[in-house]
Amino acid sequence: MSSDPQDARREERRVRAAERRARAAERRAEQRERGRTRTDARRWLNADAIVETALRIADRDGFDAVSMRNVASDLGVGTMSLYHHVADKEELLERMSDAVAGEVVMPRGVPAHWRDALREIAHRTYASFMQHPWLIETAGKRPLVTPNHLRHIEQSISVVAALDVDRETAMAMVMATDDYTVGHVFRRRSFGDRGRPDVTPEDEQRMREMLATGEFPRLAEVIGQNEDLAPPPDTFEAGLEWLFDGMEAVLEARRG
Protein backbone atom coordinates (compact mmCIF):
# COMPACT_ATOMS: atom_id res chain seq x y z
CA MET A 1 0.00 0.00 0.00
CA SER A 2 1.55 3.30 -1.12
CA SER A 3 1.75 6.44 1.02
CA ASP A 4 0.15 9.76 0.09
CA PRO A 5 2.97 12.11 -1.15
CA GLN A 6 1.40 15.04 0.67
CA ASP A 7 1.37 13.09 3.93
CA ALA A 8 5.03 12.26 3.42
CA ARG A 9 5.94 15.92 2.85
CA ARG A 10 3.93 16.97 5.90
CA GLU A 11 5.75 14.37 8.01
CA GLU A 12 9.10 15.56 6.68
CA ARG A 13 8.26 19.17 7.54
CA ARG A 14 7.14 18.09 11.00
CA VAL A 15 10.41 16.25 11.63
CA ARG A 16 12.50 19.20 10.43
CA ALA A 17 10.52 21.62 12.60
CA ALA A 18 11.04 19.39 15.61
CA GLU A 19 14.78 19.27 14.90
CA ARG A 20 14.92 23.08 14.63
CA ARG A 21 13.08 23.46 17.94
CA ALA A 22 15.49 21.00 19.60
CA ARG A 23 18.54 22.87 18.28
CA ALA A 24 17.09 26.21 19.40
CA ALA A 25 16.39 24.82 22.87
CA GLU A 26 19.94 23.50 23.05
CA ARG A 27 21.36 26.90 22.07
CA ARG A 28 19.23 28.65 24.68
CA ALA A 29 20.44 26.21 27.34
CA GLU A 30 24.07 26.82 26.35
CA GLN A 31 23.56 30.57 26.45
CA ARG A 32 21.97 30.35 29.89
CA GLU A 33 24.89 28.21 31.11
CA ARG A 34 27.45 30.64 29.72
CA GLY A 35 25.56 33.49 31.34
CA ARG A 36 25.58 31.74 34.70
CA THR A 37 29.30 30.91 34.35
CA ARG A 38 30.19 34.50 33.52
CA THR A 39 28.00 35.83 36.31
CA ASP A 40 29.66 33.48 38.80
CA ALA A 41 33.10 34.48 37.48
CA ARG A 42 32.35 38.17 37.85
CA ARG A 43 31.50 37.61 41.51
CA TRP A 44 35.04 36.53 42.34
CA LEU A 45 36.93 38.28 39.52
CA ASN A 46 39.56 40.67 40.87
CA ALA A 47 43.07 41.87 40.10
CA ASP A 48 44.72 39.04 42.06
CA ALA A 49 42.82 36.37 40.12
CA ILE A 50 43.74 38.04 36.84
CA VAL A 51 47.43 38.24 37.73
CA GLU A 52 47.46 34.63 38.96
CA THR A 53 45.93 33.50 35.67
CA ALA A 54 48.40 35.56 33.63
CA LEU A 55 51.30 33.98 35.52
CA ARG A 56 49.87 30.53 34.91
CA ILE A 57 49.64 31.25 31.17
CA ALA A 58 53.22 32.56 31.08
CA ASP A 59 54.52 29.52 32.97
CA ARG A 60 52.58 27.13 30.73
CA ASP A 61 52.75 28.73 27.29
CA GLY A 62 55.50 31.35 27.49
CA PHE A 63 55.55 35.06 28.23
CA ASP A 64 54.43 36.06 24.73
CA ALA A 65 51.17 34.13 25.24
CA VAL A 66 50.06 36.60 27.91
CA SER A 67 47.30 38.82 26.53
CA MET A 68 44.10 40.24 27.91
CA ARG A 69 42.14 37.98 25.56
CA ASN A 70 43.97 34.81 26.64
CA VAL A 71 43.62 35.68 30.31
CA ALA A 72 39.89 36.29 29.87
CA SER A 73 39.53 33.00 28.01
CA ASP A 74 41.25 31.07 30.80
CA LEU A 75 39.00 32.74 33.35
CA GLY A 76 35.86 32.11 31.30
CA VAL A 77 34.88 35.78 31.17
CA GLY A 78 34.63 38.47 28.54
CA THR A 79 37.79 40.41 27.79
CA MET A 80 36.20 43.74 28.66
CA SER A 81 35.39 42.53 32.18
CA LEU A 82 39.13 42.49 32.97
CA TYR A 83 39.36 46.24 32.49
CA HIS A 84 37.22 46.82 35.58
CA HIS A 85 40.21 45.53 37.62
CA VAL A 86 43.31 46.08 35.45
CA ALA A 87 43.64 49.20 33.34
CA ASP A 88 45.52 47.61 30.43
CA LYS A 89 48.17 45.03 29.53
CA GLU A 90 50.94 47.33 30.73
CA GLU A 91 49.46 47.35 34.23
CA LEU A 92 48.96 43.58 34.07
CA LEU A 93 52.65 43.06 33.26
CA GLU A 94 53.62 45.39 36.10
CA ARG A 95 51.46 43.44 38.53
CA MET A 96 52.94 40.16 37.28
CA SER A 97 56.44 41.49 37.80
CA ASP A 98 55.58 42.66 41.30
CA ALA A 99 54.01 39.31 42.19
CA VAL A 100 57.12 37.42 41.10
CA ALA A 101 59.37 39.83 42.99
CA GLY A 102 57.26 39.16 46.07
CA GLU A 103 58.33 35.51 45.94
CA VAL A 104 61.91 36.59 46.66
CA VAL A 105 61.05 38.91 49.55
CA MET A 106 61.83 37.26 52.89
CA PRO A 107 58.49 37.24 54.74
CA ARG A 108 60.00 36.82 58.21
CA GLY A 109 62.47 39.63 57.75
CA VAL A 110 66.22 39.51 57.26
CA PRO A 111 68.17 36.86 59.23
CA ALA A 112 70.76 38.26 61.60
CA HIS A 113 73.83 36.64 59.99
CA TRP A 114 74.72 37.79 56.48
CA ARG A 115 75.44 34.24 55.35
CA ASP A 116 72.01 32.97 56.40
CA ALA A 117 70.36 35.97 54.76
CA LEU A 118 72.16 35.64 51.42
CA ARG A 119 71.48 31.90 51.47
CA GLU A 120 67.75 32.49 51.85
CA ILE A 121 67.76 35.10 49.10
CA ALA A 122 69.58 32.66 46.81
CA HIS A 123 67.15 29.83 47.52
CA ARG A 124 64.08 32.02 47.05
CA THR A 125 65.51 33.45 43.82
CA TYR A 126 66.36 29.97 42.57
CA ALA A 127 62.87 28.66 43.30
CA SER A 128 61.20 31.63 41.61
CA PHE A 129 63.26 31.35 38.43
CA MET A 130 62.67 27.60 38.21
CA GLN A 131 58.93 28.15 38.66
CA HIS A 132 58.81 30.83 35.97
CA PRO A 133 61.04 29.86 33.00
CA TRP A 134 60.26 33.11 31.18
CA LEU A 135 62.02 35.23 33.81
CA ILE A 136 65.42 34.72 32.19
CA GLU A 137 64.00 35.46 28.73
CA THR A 138 62.49 38.74 29.91
CA ALA A 139 65.41 39.91 32.04
CA GLY A 140 65.75 43.66 31.67
CA LYS A 141 62.40 43.94 29.88
CA ARG A 142 59.98 43.53 32.79
CA PRO A 143 58.97 46.51 34.96
CA LEU A 144 61.64 46.71 37.65
CA VAL A 145 60.33 49.52 39.85
CA THR A 146 57.50 47.96 41.83
CA PRO A 147 56.88 47.79 45.60
CA ASN A 148 58.13 44.21 45.93
CA HIS A 149 61.21 44.86 43.80
CA LEU A 150 62.13 47.72 46.09
CA ARG A 151 61.42 45.58 49.16
CA HIS A 152 63.79 42.91 47.81
CA ILE A 153 66.51 45.48 47.14
CA GLU A 154 66.00 47.02 50.59
CA GLN A 155 66.39 43.62 52.24
CA SER A 156 69.47 42.80 50.17
CA ILE A 157 71.16 46.06 51.13
CA SER A 158 70.31 45.56 54.80
CA VAL A 159 72.05 42.16 54.72
CA VAL A 160 75.46 43.71 54.08
CA ALA A 161 74.94 47.23 55.43
CA ALA A 162 76.34 46.44 58.87
CA LEU A 163 79.45 44.60 57.62
CA ASP A 164 82.83 46.25 58.14
CA VAL A 165 83.56 46.57 54.42
CA ASP A 166 83.37 49.35 51.86
CA ARG A 167 80.23 49.91 49.84
CA GLU A 168 81.63 48.33 46.68
CA THR A 169 82.59 45.12 48.48
CA ALA A 170 79.23 44.90 50.22
CA MET A 171 77.29 45.28 46.98
CA ALA A 172 79.61 42.86 45.20
CA MET A 173 78.66 40.21 47.76
CA VAL A 174 74.98 40.63 46.91
CA MET A 175 75.58 40.72 43.16
CA ALA A 176 77.85 37.65 43.24
CA THR A 177 75.11 35.71 45.00
CA ASP A 178 72.56 36.77 42.38
CA ASP A 179 74.94 36.04 39.50
CA TYR A 180 75.76 32.56 40.78
CA THR A 181 72.08 31.73 41.39
CA VAL A 182 70.77 32.95 38.04
CA GLY A 183 73.70 31.31 36.23
CA HIS A 184 72.88 27.97 37.83
CA VAL A 185 69.21 28.39 36.90
CA PHE A 186 70.18 29.13 33.31
CA ARG A 187 72.18 25.92 33.09
CA ARG A 188 69.37 23.87 34.62
CA ARG A 189 66.83 25.43 32.29
CA SER A 190 69.07 24.89 29.27
CA PHE A 191 70.28 21.36 29.97
CA GLY A 192 67.87 19.88 32.52
CA ASP A 193 68.72 18.08 35.75
CA ARG A 194 71.91 16.57 34.32
CA GLY A 195 73.40 20.05 33.90
CA ARG A 196 74.75 19.34 30.42
CA PRO A 197 73.33 18.70 26.95
CA ASP A 198 72.31 15.21 25.91
CA VAL A 199 75.05 13.37 24.07
CA THR A 200 74.04 11.37 21.00
CA PRO A 201 75.84 8.19 19.88
CA GLU A 202 77.29 10.27 17.03
CA ASP A 203 78.66 12.76 19.58
CA GLU A 204 80.24 9.93 21.58
CA GLN A 205 81.88 8.46 18.48
CA ARG A 206 83.26 11.84 17.47
CA MET A 207 84.51 12.38 21.05
CA ARG A 208 86.37 9.04 20.97
CA GLU A 209 87.93 9.87 17.64
CA MET A 210 89.13 13.28 18.83
CA LEU A 211 90.45 11.95 22.14
CA ALA A 212 92.37 9.28 20.24
CA THR A 213 94.47 12.04 18.66
CA GLY A 214 96.18 12.60 22.01
CA GLU A 215 95.56 16.34 21.86
CA PHE A 216 93.32 16.30 24.94
CA PRO A 217 95.10 14.16 27.57
CA ARG A 218 93.44 15.72 30.60
CA LEU A 219 89.96 15.31 29.15
CA ALA A 220 90.75 11.72 28.19
CA GLU A 221 91.91 11.06 31.74
CA VAL A 222 88.71 12.46 33.26
CA ILE A 223 86.43 10.58 30.91
CA GLY A 224 88.42 7.44 31.46
CA GLN A 225 87.75 7.69 35.20
CA ASN A 226 84.09 8.67 34.92
CA GLU A 227 82.17 8.26 31.67
CA ASP A 228 79.15 10.03 33.11
CA LEU A 229 80.14 13.67 33.54
CA ALA A 230 76.82 14.80 35.04
CA PRO A 231 77.37 17.02 38.10
CA PRO A 232 76.35 15.75 41.53
CA PRO A 233 72.80 16.67 42.61
CA ASP A 234 73.98 19.15 45.26
CA THR A 235 76.00 21.34 42.90
CA PHE A 236 73.95 24.43 43.73
CA GLU A 237 74.24 23.96 47.49
CA ALA A 238 77.95 23.17 47.40
CA GLY A 239 78.81 26.00 45.05
CA LEU A 240 76.81 28.48 47.11
CA GLU A 241 78.69 27.55 50.27
CA TRP A 242 82.02 27.78 48.45
CA LEU A 243 81.02 31.27 47.33
CA PHE A 244 80.20 32.23 50.91
CA ASP A 245 83.47 30.71 52.12
CA GLY A 246 85.30 33.09 49.79
CA MET A 247 83.33 36.04 51.11
CA GLU A 248 84.05 34.92 54.66
CA ALA A 249 87.77 34.85 53.87
CA VAL A 250 87.60 38.42 52.56
CA LEU A 251 85.78 39.59 55.68
CA GLU A 252 88.27 37.83 57.95
CA ALA A 253 91.18 39.44 56.10
CA ARG A 254 89.59 42.88 56.53
CA ARG A 255 89.15 42.27 60.25
CA GLY A 256 92.69 40.97 60.70
Walk me through the structure:
This protein is mainly α. The chain contains 12 helices and no strands. It has helices spanning 5-44, 47-61, 68-75, 79-82, 89-102, 114-131, 134-137, 147-161, 167-191, 201-211, 217-225, 235-255.
Number of strands: 0
In angstroms, what separates the terminal alpha carbons?
A: 118 Å
Q: Report low-confidence residues grouped into runs of 5 or more.
A: none
Form type: flat
SSE pattern, N- to C-terminal: HHHHHHHHHHHH
- Rg calculated over all Cα atoms: 30 Å
Query: Total helix count?
Result: 12
Q: How many strands, which pairing sense, and closed or not: the largest β-sheet?
A: none
Helicity range = over 70%
**Structural class determined from secondary elements:** mainly alpha
Strand proportion: under 5%
Provide mean pLDDT, rounded: 85
Distinctive features:
mainly alpha; about 260 residues; flat
What's this model, at a glance?
By secondary structure, the protein is mainly α. The protein has helices at residues 5-44, 47-61, 68-75, 79-82, 89-102, 114-131, 134-137, 147-161, 167-191, 201-211, 217-225, 235-255.
Write the layout of secondary structure elements.
Elements: H1 5-44, H2 47-61, H3 68-75, H4 79-82, H5 89-102, H6 114-131, H7 134-137, H8 147-161, H9 167-191, H10 201-211, H11 217-225, H12 235-255
Helix pairs in contact: 2-3, 2-5, 5-8, 6-9, 8-9, 9-12
